[in-house]
Amino acid sequence: MTSRKPILFRLMAPHIAPAILALVAAAALVPIANLAFPPDHALHVPTGTVVLVGKWLTYALLAVALDLVWGYCGILSLGHGAFFALGGYAMGMHLMREIGPRGVYGHPVLPDFMVFLDWEALPVAWWGFDVFAYAAFMALFVPGALAFVFGWLAFRSRVTGVYLSIITQAGTYALMLAFFRNELGFGGNNGLTDFKDVLGFSLQADTTRAALFALSALALAGGLLLAQAIVTSKFGLVLVAIRDAEARTRFLGWRVERFKLFVFVVSAMMAGLAGALYVPQVGIINPSEFSPANSIEAVIWVAVGGRGTLSGAALGAILVNWLESFLTGAYPEAWLFVLGFLFVVVTLFLPKGILGALRSLRGRRRAADPGKAPEKSPAGATQAAE
Amino acid sequence: MTITRRQALQMGAAFAGAFALGSRSAFAQGEPIKVGVLHSLSGTMAISETTLKDVMLMLIEQQNAKGGLLGRQLEAVVVDPASDWPLFAEKARELITGGCAATFGCWTSVSRKSVLPVFEELNSILFYPVQYEGEESSRNVFYTGAAPNQQAIPAVDYLMEVEGVERWVLEGTDYVYPRTTNRILEAYLLSKGVAPEDIRVNYTPFSHSDWQTIVSDIKRFGSEGKRTAVVSTINGDANVPFYRELANQGVAATDIPVVAFSVGEEELAGIDTGPLVGHLAAWNYFMSVDTPENQAFIDAWHAFTGDTNRVTNDPMEAHYIGFNMWVKAVEAAGTTDPDAVIDAMVGVAVPNLTGGLSAMMPNHHITKPVLVGEIQDDGQFAVVWETAGLVPGDAWSDHLEGSKDLMSDWQAPMNCGNFNVATGQCGGA
Amino acid sequence: MAHLARTSIRLTRSVLVALTLALVLLAAPLVSTPVSAQQASTQDVETILAGFTRGQFPATLAAVDALAASGHPHAAPILQALSDRRLVFETASRRVLWQEGGQTFDALTGEPVAAPGPTTDVRVSNAVRRAVQTAMASLTLRAPNPATRIEAAVSILRARDLSQRAALAEARAEETDPNVQRAFDDTLAGLALVDPDAPEAERLAAVERLTARADAGARALLLSVPADATDAVKAAAAEGIAAIDRRLEIQGHVQNLFFGLSLGSVLLLAAIGLAITFGVMGVINMAHGEMVMIGAYATFVVQELMRAFAPGLLDLSLLVALPLAFATAGLVGIALERLVIRHLYGRPLETLLATWGVSLILQQAVRTLFGPTNREVMNPSFMSGSLELFGIALTWSRVWIIVFALAVFLALLVAMKATSFGLRMRAVVQNRRMAASMGIRTPWVDALTFGLGSGIAGVAGVALSQIDNVSPNLGQSYIIDSFLVVVFGGVGSLWGALVAALSLGVANKLVEPLAGAVLAKIVILVAVILFIQKRPRGLFALKGRAVES
């Protein structure tokens, strides 16, 4: 096994460091390119692109969160979209409250959809969301709490493998149906829309957009660092042990369910943060974000990018979404063929995903050159153990 | 398989291309005018929206055959928002920044809500062709489908007056359109003296497929002596199993008629309508309406699709009206500049397919006739009743507490989508 | 093609109508005498017919009643034509005509009209249809067909048409068919109850009769006992209503149970193929729903072909579709296994990714081939309508689907346990290496097993095409439920899938009346999630070493 290295060294692993650098650079440069250069300048980045890539960055954070539990702990959650959506709803509720009396009906407190569906008063669940700090806290707390309750039940009773996957799917499906219900008071099928501003800044202003982009990039960088810190710690080694042989780890005396629970909660909170950053950028949150297909898509991003590589998951999310965005515009009638075919091809020919393939390519080159020994990373070590 | 350097380069080029799309906005004179078509071609809504994409292509082709617009050809830009609501917003931005002069699109309310801020921010024009719950009026959107007062209320009047219905089942899919429509209808029925216990409201999830319990409840509710009708706002693909269950449990139209607001020719195409004869639907257009305009439209549609079995329906007519209005407004304004076109739109009147002249009103809704049709055994509707004249669409319902004081007028000097006549202010933003 | 078929259906229907009419016409002169004292003059009939040309429903309704009472010799065909929307009038001359079998007849004279001018349809509402039914009832109380006579009695009762009481009593005296007698007696009882002139004894007897009938219609009649009735009658009626309510409640429970079993068998059908591909082979088969969809589209294609080439055998189309759907979906499954899944054994989670891609491709392929809209798959006659059993209406389509689901389950069970292929399949699943060394060609067993699971999904599609949309989204709407059923029942256990599907169906239908359809579904999902905490391997957990893997 690897010797313990200083934390900074561990965080700056070769597949993480470039990603962090790129994200920090993007957070700094893209807003400048968008705001400082006039639209016809060669270096200008159009606002549309800022919004689009900002959205992909939040997806990437969700993918990193999912990779943390799936790639390193073997928990294949088919319901991670639920945590993302819950974080999004928390932020959406704040943005709704911030509209205040500027809604179409001019009601001082109630959001528009409550006025025309005849709600008498603000439901308890909405209390406090006018305070940004509370909403931000809830965006992390609610997904975390749900993950805690769900994980506490499931891991303690040793629900594993496909059973766990399917009940996470059932969970997000149940939440979707619940949020579709107008009685629940979260806007039903339409969800929450018509946001005006956040912390006093107009959501339609280019500066706000650029700021949200920078925040998303930094959040993704932070998420990558946190996840990398977890998986390269001693704690992370136990996680990998659980992934590869849960029963043996338990027999060695580790309280497997506690490790799983911790990492599941952290991952859910990361997903919640991603959702909270997603909503102000796309301007809508609605129950279809809970749909099981969305969670499956997130799993696919991770698989395409490379399971158990963290930065690969982020890369996969951005690539798949970019491809989808490009194809739906360029080949509206045939894009599903291309995307579906791509998924099949990736599974068959790139079993470790894009990053995994790149890495093994590099590994082969290094092996051919006896001067350099292949570098060991925890992920690489575990893949050998499989 | 590994990615070669060349492939990587190609992908990079495509990547850059996707980005560059955003920055291309100006076009030279003589270049075609781009028209955005924003309808889902995959996912759950493809079943309804694909037809609307086709009808837009047909209308644009026809216009080009007539010499185009302002001496320029029209070019349809089709994208697939894939029944994914945030993707709708993304694609709307792509269309507008890609230079589309106007966009025709959306079906569900949530997709419209999703793209609305984009159209307002980038100041472009959206034509929305589907009947909806109202309670909205945007300067950048033209609503060519029916508002509740152009569909639901006349249909209920028909049932009350002609069929003598006293008991009501309001059956809907649980989303905003049925919720709002049913609230409006409930208030309306109560104001007509219907007892609260004679109104039963029930909601089901999207794509609900097991209707056994609900249909047997409806049967029971309808067998208690008073004449009963079902007002259905059941959405799209839940209708086939619903009507099948009605037919199998023997709910005949003569006993308990069902009047639907979301069932048109296209939805009936999947059902054997033999046992459903006599059930009703309320729309502003039926394929069976016998006018020369409609015949020409149907013939063109059959020729365009190369399939004489293809049906036409109400949202298609809405696009027909909306497109012709846009053409007229652009001609009047002499430019496709959104501000000029938006100003020129109000007051534009074009023939609809049912023999009338539909006009765009200051609240960006249009005037339409309301027709009640009976399902026939060939999957068509036969008109049994229509309003005497055209009904103007009402953006804000008079039957809802919050919205009855609001009005919308996008002409100067008011220029407001939600003017509150009680406070005398343009409410909200 | 669909158009042609519809026309032929319409033709057969109009032939039937014409036959009934002919019979009615024969009987009409007999019965019209007691109804109308004297025949109306031609002038009167002309005035009556003019009522149809006003384009107003009240005028049409009045014309229906007047025409039925007029004794006009062509009243019956005219009324029937009105009800079927075959009554028109010449737009210019306002001459009323009816169309029948491709010919047009003058409503006044009954003479065929060779070349009518442009015509306008007489509009029909359901109220007009009811009026026609009631009016026709007086003409058909002695129709030769017992079903027609029963219908006549029922529509008199529905209209509570007291004027028919005497005629009905007369007809009852001559009636010999026991079923018709019962219907006539029911109607007479109902009329006696609401007739203000009926004596108390008669009303009491009526209450008793209706209480014994004990259905919703009888309850409605008992509810409308006139205010002038004596206290004894009112008390008896109230008691009768209470008794009927008790009975209806029990019936409601039985019916709910049936609904639950039927929903359960739909779930079973949807899941049973997955119980093989996922349960037995361990492939997280996201394309399972699309196999169901392929089966449904195979049914559609078979029906279209039979419409074109063998319209007489259309009722048998499902039987033809079954093997074809099995073969089509099975072949697609085998192709999928050979091309993709075989490379992924030992990597079960990655099958999710690949099959998800395949499901996107299949959906889009069907959308491209058949269009995005619903396709019409008709119900054969044996699957239409409902079966009345102890006052409970069981729809035939649901009954057959329950039977069919159980048959498929049994067939699969036999295939797994009693055939040599089943033996090999189980051997491969339990110990691949050992099976291979015993000479079993494991790759082919894998392919055939996957083909079997897919084929069964296709067969399920035939059944589901009878109750649901046939659209490219068909598969997506069942996939989540299918996985839930297999996991709840215990991965790898066929019996588990059966018990899980039926219990989920019944539980759903028991909760639905209390909580509504949406909440019921949520409650069931949460219950399954909690249940899995109690039994992490589902209802029928496999035991042994394989469990840990």
Automatic annotation (TrEMBL), chain A:
Q: What Pfam family is a match, any one?
A: BPD_transp_2
- Signal peptide boundaries: none
Question: What stretches pass through the bilayer?
Answer: 59-92, 132-155, 162-180, 210-240, 261-279, 299-323, 335-355
Its annotated compartments are:
Cell membrane
Q: Does the keyword Transmembrane helix apply?
A: yes
Swiss-Prot/TrEMBL keywords = Cell membrane, Membrane, Transmembrane, Transmembrane helix
Superkingdom, taxonomy of origin:
Bacteria
Q: Specify whether Transmembrane helix is a keyword of the entry.
A: yes
Q: Which GO terms describe its molecular function?
A: branched-chain amino acid transmembrane transporter activity
Q: Name one GO cellular component term.
A: plasma membrane
What does the record say about its membrane topology? Multi-pass membrane protein
List the protein's name. Answer: Urea ABC transporter permease subunit UrtC
Organism, per UniProt? Salinarimonas ramus
Automatic annotation (TrEMBL), chain B:
Query: Which key words tag this protein in UniProt?
Result: Signal
- Name the SUPFAM superfamilies on file: Periplasmic binding protein-like I
Q: Does the keyword Coiled coil apply?
A: no
Region forming the signal peptide: 1-28
Q: Does the keyword Signal apply?
A: yes
| InterPro entries in alphabetical order | ABC_urea-bd_UrtA (IPR017777), Peripla_BP_I (IPR028082), TAT_signal (IPR006311)
One Pfam assignment: Peripla_BP_5
Task: Give the NCBIfam families listed for this entry.
Answer: urea_ABC_UrtA
Protein's UniProt name: Urea ABC transporter substrate-binding protein
Source organism per entry reads Salinarimonas ramus
UniProtKB/TrEMBL annotation, chain C:
Gene Ontology molecular function:
transmembrane transporter activity
Q: Does the keyword Chloroplast apply?
A: no
Its cellular-component GO annotations read:
plasma membrane
The subcellular location is:
Cell membrane
Describe its membrane topology.
Answer: Multi-pass membrane protein
Protein name, entry field: Branched-chain amino acid ABC transporter permease
Pfam families in the record = BPD_transp_2
**Alphabetically, which GO biological process terms does the record hold?**
amino acid transport
Where it mainly occurs, coarsely classed, is membrane
Q: Where is the signal peptide?
A: 1-37
Q: Which UniProt keyword terms apply here? A: Amino-acid transport, Cell membrane, Membrane, Signal, Transmembrane, Transmembrane helix, Transport
Q: Which PANTHER family match?
A: ABC TRANSPORTER PERMEASE PROTEIN, BRANCHED-CHAIN AMINO ACID TRANSPORT SYSTEM PERMEASE PROTEIN LIVH
Taxonomic placement: Bacteria, Pseudomonadati, Pseudomonadota, Alphaproteobacteria, Hyphomicrobiales
Where do transmembrane segments lie in this chain?
257-284, 316-340, 352-370, 390-416, 483-507, 513-532
InterPro entries attached to this UniProt entry: ABC_transp_permease, ABC_UrtB_bac, BCAA_transport_permease
Q: Does the keyword Cell membrane apply?
A: yes
Family, per the entry?
A: Belongs to the binding-protein-dependent transport system permease family. LivHM subfamily.
